[in-house]
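In response to the reviewer comment on reproducibility (Comment 2.3), we provide here a single inverse folding case reported in full, input and output, so that an independent group could reproduce the run without further information from us. The structure tokens appear first.
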């Protein structure tokens, strides 16, 4: 499966979350570290859902950029 992630800059580091997996978050000092951490968080999150007998949400978020004239 392929899930969309959102990576945001915070005051001290980066954070990421998965819109299709509420509660699945990660942080890191760099974008690359944050991406590695969210990949692990997704696997852990899905593993926990399977153990709890919960359905795994299908990826449904769409990611696009909108250009705005300045």
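Designed residues, in position order:
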């Amino acid at each position: 499966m392929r899930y969309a992630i959102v990576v945001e800059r915070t005051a001290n580091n980066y954070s990421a979350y998965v819109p299709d997996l509420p509660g699945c978050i990660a942080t890191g000092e760099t974008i690359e570290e944050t991406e590695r951490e969210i990949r692990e968080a997704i696997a852990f999150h899905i593993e926990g859902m399977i153990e709890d007998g919960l359905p795994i949400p299908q990826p449904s978020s769409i990611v696009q950029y909108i250009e705005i004239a300045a």
